[in-house]
Write a structure and sequence with these properties.
Elements (H helix, E strand, L loop, with lengths): L11 H31 L6 H31 L6 H33 L4 H4 L2 H21 L9 H38 L9 H44 L2 H20 L1 H12 L1 H10 L18 H13 L7
Helix pairs in contact: 1-2, 1-8, 1-9, 1-10, 2-3, 2-5, 2-8, 2-9, 3-5, 3-6, 3-7, 6-7, 7-8, 7-9, 7-11
């Protein structure tokens, strides 16, 4: 560890604590997202257009666990390279790429569900497979282009640059996701209340009831995703604002202190989102839970309900069949 400026570097205790944090986050992100991608690959019922956006998000989260977290353990926690070096520039490029890919993919997931709920009759017309792949490719090209653009800004970063990256990576995606969530909440809540409060609710079509309930569950899932996203990335947004202030005042000692002492903790909080996303999708979605139990039925926690068909209640089986038809493409997946 570089000890030339001990006040501007992590202590040994902080390095050990952060290393454990990154290691646990890496293990959870790799395991969870690998399972999600494996389930999407093995189960044709999960291979919907909506879930392709989830697959793109899982790839971004998996790359964090496989590459970014281990690299941060070595560099941020132990080597702690000086600013304005080749290694420091590589870390900055990876950070921009990871943040952009994650936030942009979350935007795609939210916009997709916004279209599905606000324009249900035109959803298949608007969200086609070709457009889905085009959007996903554009998301990854945008993240690569934005991260590559930082190479041309080495040694030239100023307040305008920091503010521009902050708006593109954090502010704009959060505004888009928030708008989608508010619109989805209003539309789905009204539909759910109208269906539940019907006098002939018990006699209405089962598909309508199940769809309303699934939409209500979907907006709660978006709430979890959006809430976790804000909590994990807000420290980065706040720290970037502080860095802009010290760039204006040209206080290099404070910038160095933030880079070495504060920023690793902020990164640890932000990268934890990659480990949390699979948990949200698994626990909030019936389709994934059933696919998980079918795929890993030999595991102690992957038991499948093997009760005979005679013992099943007919209404329960009917609801299960309807749910299988209607939940395909749900945002929670």
């Amino acid at each position: 560890m570089n000890e030339s400026r001990p006040n501007e570097h992590l202590s040994s205790e902080a390095s050990i604590a952060l290393s454990l944090w990154f290691a646990l986050s890496s293990f959870a992100a790799v395991t969870g997202n690998a399972i999600v991608l494996w389930l999407l690959y093995k189960n044709e019922t999960l291979q919907t257009i909506s879930n392709r956006y989830l697959a793109s998000l899982s790839v971004a989260d998996l790359s964090v666990g496989l590459v970014v977290d281990p690299l941060w353990i070595v560099t941020r926690c132990w080597i702690q390279p000086p600013l304005y070096t080749m290694l420091s520039d590589v870390l900055h490029v990876l950070w921009v790429h990871t943040a952009t890919a994650t936030t942009f993919n979350i935007c795609c997931v939210s916009i997709n569900r916004f279209i599905a709920i606000r324009f249900p009759l035109r959803y298949q017309e608007i969200v086609t497979k070709r457009r889905c792949y085009t959007v996903i490719i554009l998301v990854w090209l945008s993240s690569l282009s934005l991260s590559a653009s930082t190479l041309f800004m080495i040694g030239k970063l100023n307040v305008v640059s920091y503010l521009s990256y902050t708006c593109i990576i954090y502010v704009a995606p959060l505004l888009v996701v928030s708008f989608c969530y508010i619109s989805i909440f209003k539309a789905a809540s009204e539909q759910y209340k109208r269906t539940i409060t019907r006098e002939n609710f018990r006699n209405c079509d089962g598909n309508i009831r199940v769809l309303a309930v699934q939409n209500f569950i979907a907006i709660k899932t978006i709430g979890f995703v959006l809430g976790v996203c804000i909590i994990t990335w807000m420290p980065s947004l706040g720290l970037l604002s502080v860095v802009c202030y010290y760039v204006l005042t040209k206080d290099k000692s404070k910038i160095h202190e933030l880079f070495y002492v504060v920023w690793p903790w902020v990164d640890a909080i932000a990268f934890t989102l990659s480990a949390i996303n699979p948990l949200i999708y698994y626990f909030r979605n019936d389709d994934f839970r059933r696919a998980f139990r079918r795929t890993f039925h030999r595991w102690p926690f992957g038991h499948v309900d093997n009760s005979p068909a005679i013992g099943l209640n007919s209404e329960k089986k009917k609801k299960r069949m309807v749910r299988n038809d209607e939940t395909t493409g749900n945002l929670a997946s």
